[in-house]
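Example 3.2
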Amino acid sequence: MKQKDFAVIIIVAAIAGIFSLFLSQKLFTGDKNRKLTVEKVSPISSEFKEADPKVFNKDAVNPTQLIKIGEDANANPF
């Protein structure tokens, strides 16, 4: 290629780049896309509510205890 060809390619690429920049700003970034709304978040407090006495009391069932149903006669299951 000749030196003139490089100059033409660079000029055409620059014009196409500038044109696509302006065109993309008009098509993809409108005023409605720039204004966003977010929901308001309430602040977290360091205070903790008391537990419900219906659920958390001394007579409640403890789900972490081991439950054994029936006798286990086999000491080596495998």
